[in-house]
Structure formats: C-alpha cells, structure tokens
Amino acid sequence: MEIRPILSALMRSKVALVLIGLQIALTLAIVCNSLFIISQRVQMMGRESGINEADTFTIGSLGFGAAFDIKTSIQEDVALLRSLPGVADATPTNTTPMSNGGWSTGINLTREQKTSTAPSAMYFVDEHGLNAFGAKLAEGRFFTADEITFRERSSVDWPPVIVITRALANKLFPDQSALGKQVYLDTEGNPNTIIGVVERMQVPWIGWSAEDGPDAEFYSTFVPQNVAFGNFGRYLVRTEPGRRDEVMKAAEAAMLKSNHSRIVREPRTIERIRAEGYQGHRAMTIILIGVIVSLLAVTALGIVGMASFWVTQRTKQIGTRRALGATRGSILRYFMTENFVITSLGLALGVLLTYGLNYWLMANYAAQRLPLVYLAGGIVVLMLLGQAAVFGPATRASRVPPAVATRSV
C-alpha cells in the first residue's frame, strides 16, 4: 500500500496526529520506566535475607525499677529461651534484617583513612548468633563463649575479632580472602581481625547505601558483644521447623512469669518484619501497575476515538473507493496502515522521552540505566495495542457499502 496518500491525509489532521503521537510517546516513556522500577522492586522484595525467616521470631524485654539489671536479665533470658521445647537456638541481638533500625559504622583498612572503605551494619550477638540467625558460615569460624563481652553505654572500644559477610569481604578485599585481615571499626582504637565470613546477611535498612554497589545491602558485621544500654533487651529465637507459632506464645508466657520487673514486648516473626519493611515498595509497585494499566487504557481509547472520528468523516470517500473497486480488505489495510504510521511516529519520539526520563531518574534518584529489553518490549506492546485499538473502527469502515457514494450530503 502507498504510504504517501496516507501521509497526505494525515497532514490535513495535524492536531489529532500531534495529540495521539504525544500520547503514545508519553505512554511509552512512563510504561517502560515504570516496568523497570517494578521489576527492580519485585527482585528486591524477593531476595534472600540470609536469615531463616520461616522459623524465626524476635521478642523484647523492657525492665523497670531500680533493682532491674540488664546484664543479669540477658543471661537469664537467653538461658530460659534456649530451654523451651521447640527452640533450636536463641541469641541476644540489637536488630534484625529488614527491621529499619540498628547500628552502622564505616570500616577502614588503615588508621590514616579519612573516608571509610565501606559502610557496615553491626549485629551484636553472642556465640549462638550464627546458629540462631540460621546463617551459613562460608569461611573461618564464629565466636566462642570466652570472646563475648558486654558493651556498656560508655564503651568506645571494639572487640579484637569480628565476622563479616561475603559481600563486605569482597568490597574490602577484592579477589582475595578476608580471613586474618585486620580492619578498623574505629581508627583511634585497636585493629579488628576478621575470623570468619558469613555467606549472606542483609542489613536492617531497606535500600540502604545503594550507591555503594548492588550488594551494599549485605554489608554486615557480627560483633561478639551483648549491648547493655538502658533496660531494653532484644532476643532472636529460631525454632524447630513448623513450631514457631507455638514457641512464640510459650516464650512470651515464660518471660512474663520469670521476671515481673519488666514489660515483655510482643513477639514478631521475621516474615512480619519483612512485610512491614517492604510495604513501601509493595505500595509503589501497586501504584505503578495502576498507572501503567490506566495509561494503556487511555491510549487505546484515544486511538479508538480518533479512528472512529476519521471513519465517520470519510464515509462518503470510503463508499466512493468501494464503488471504484476497492475491496473490504484494502479499506481495512488502509486504516491499519494509517494507525501504524501514527504509532511509529509517536514511538520514535517516545524513545527519546523514555531515555530522557531514565536519565532524570538516574541523576535525581540513583536509578539504574534502563535496559534495551524494556524499551523493545514497550514498543512491541504499544504497536500491538494500537493495531488492536484501530481494528474495530477499521472493520466498520470496510463494511461501508459502495452505494454510500451516490447519496447526497
């Protein structure tokens, strides 16, 4: 089919051509970038944290009264929790992955550094920490009982040994083992020796330090200390498979009974912590899906409305063509081709807008570069959407009888 007559006809309806083209371009830009953001959020929400989430929960204790002693309470509580039927292990801890609260610090390789080599979340645990978290040791060893100390509010010194994650080890010592290496959690203190590497442990903060690399959310360090700040203690409990819910109730009741000089905080499962931690990402995903569906629907309706208007406006011309021998198929192809031209022009502009929007997101929100596959997919979807939207009006145009050409206006 000749394209020149179609272009000539479109030039007589420049306003409609521009409006539909802009609509298609904007839809392509927003849909492609939105799909990319959604895919990143879904991938983030589905990644493994490094902790046994299905069988693990946390429980807290807040003491009151002058006689309450946090050190004694921590020792008694962990002994009590480990003795409960169905408990696989328990440890005191200051935080958990995805909880959006905790302690972090920068790690230096030398005393002279003014800028840290990498940031790290700090998990304060005892010798049961690795087993209680359900984490996997990749290299070296974990802490022993005689290495565990209490960290007072006034403490400034860090312990001589630490355990870090593989992601942090790769950041600090690329292409070499981190075992036995020394780092500085405090450049004014003594160096800290890495005695073990844990396969994976997510930091408490969602989206934390993303500018440091794709694995920055797994820059974590285990510290052999129990935190004795104020009168609050937090414990992580891993249960035998399938017994988490019953152990949660038993643990809360046992802790309430063992010490009446404190308030026992409601147990929270790691699955609940994950759901609460990612609720913002989940909401964004739902909103963006709604935006995509709405944009595609509005674009399709715009194409249908434009095509229907042009069919009505050209009814007598279509009848004349039919009278001169044009088949229904040729009329159908004309309108389908016309829509293809309009959509192609809109998509050409849309490519520029898509990467313009992506560049703006990269500059202002630390977004990643949009892969070509999303652009290609968006072009295919909108091209198919345009052809599907115009098919109804084009079919109606193909059914115009030749006799229409003989009717007076």
Secondary structure category: alpha+beta
**Total number of helices:** 11
Beginning-to-end CA distance, first to last residue = 29 Å
The profile of the biggest β sheet is:
7 strands, mixed
Return Rg in Å. Answer: 32 Å
Order of helices and strands: HHEHEEEHEEEHEEEEEHEHHHHH
Tell the overall outline. elongated
Helix content: 40-55%
Give the amount of beta strand, in percent. Answer: 15-25%
Number of domains: 2
The number of distinct β-strands equals: 13
What does this structure look like?
- GO terms for molecular function: transmembrane transporter activity.
- It comes from Tahibacter aquaticus.
- One of its GO terms (cellular component) is plasma membrane.
- This is Putative ABC transport system permease protein.
- It is found in: Cell membrane.
- The protein has about 400 residues and is of the alpha+beta class.
- The chain folds into two domains: about 5-45 and about 280-405, no CATH class; about 70-260, no CATH class.
- Helix content is about 50%, strand content about 20%.
- The chain has eleven helices and 13 strands.
- It has helices at about 5-10, 15-45, 70-85, 130-135, 165-170, 245-260, 270-275, 280-315, 315-325, 330-365, 370-400, and strands at about 55-65, 85-90, 105, 120-125, 135-140, 150, 160-165, 180-185, 190-200, 220-225, 225-230, 230-240, 260-270.
- The strands form three sheets. Strands 3, 4, 5, 7, 8, 9 and 10 form a seven-stranded mixed sheet that branches. A four-stranded antiparallel sheet has the order 2-12-1-13.
- Strand 8 and strand 9 form a beta hairpin.
- Helix 2 runs antiparallel to helix 8 (about 280-315), helix 2 (about 15-45) crosses helix 11 and helix 10 (about 330-365) runs antiparallel to helix 11.
- The radius of gyration is 32 Å and the shape is elongated.
